[in-house]
Specification:
Order of helices and strands: EEEEHEEEEEEEE
Strand order of the largest sheet: 4-3-2-1-5-6
Number of strands: 12
Radius of gyration: 15 Å
Number of helices: 1
Structural class: mainly beta
Strand content: 35-45%
Oligomer: single chain
Distance between the termini: 31 Å
Largest sheet: 6 strands, antiparallel
Low-confidence stretches: none
CATH architecture of the largest domain: Roll
CATH class of the largest domain: Mainly Beta
Shape: globular
């Protein structure tokens, strides 16, 4: 079974919060981090994971269940660099493809990395490296 984790981009603060799926009834476990994932501070965020999902201040990003060639966790919205060993070179954005998408096929959800689709249950894009994300590093797209 694929590990379910989420992080969230705070639009007003322009900062990433990790582990937002662990928020429950005002017990704050979310970590604010900078682009290098250095802890900035533990500050109250939302009171529950559902609040992140319904708030207009947050963009919730799902973990793909996969790692890049260095073992770095790949999330929806990440920018990955292709090493050129496969069909692609350059960079691409990791996108979530819901089960209703005709591109995903077979009625299952997938993550799109470049031209390939991955379900997070085995085969991983080992020829990519996470180099940033669309919120903190839009210049990399």
């Amino acid at each position: 079974m694929r590990e379910i984790r989420f992080r969230a981009w705070n639009i007003p603060e322009q900062r990433m919060a990790l582990d937002v799926h662990l928020e429950y009834d005002t017990i704050t476990v979310t970590r604010w981090v900078d682009a290098d994932e250095n802890d900035l501070s533990d500050i109250p965020c939302e009171e529950s994971f559902g609040d992140y999902l319904t708030s207009e201040d947050w963009v919730v990003l799902q973990y793909t269940g996969m790692g890049d060639k260095n073992g770095t966790a790949i999330y929806e919205g990440d920018i990955v660099k292709h090493d050129g060993s496969g069909a692609l070179s350059g960079t691409s954005v990791v996108k979530f493809m819901p089960a209703t998408s005709t591109q995903a096929g077979h009625g299952e959800s997938f993550f799109q990395v470049g031209l390939s689709f991955f379900d997070g249950y085995g085969r991983e894009p080992k020829n990519v490296e996470v180099v940033g994300n669309i919120y903190e590093n839009p210049d990399l797209i």
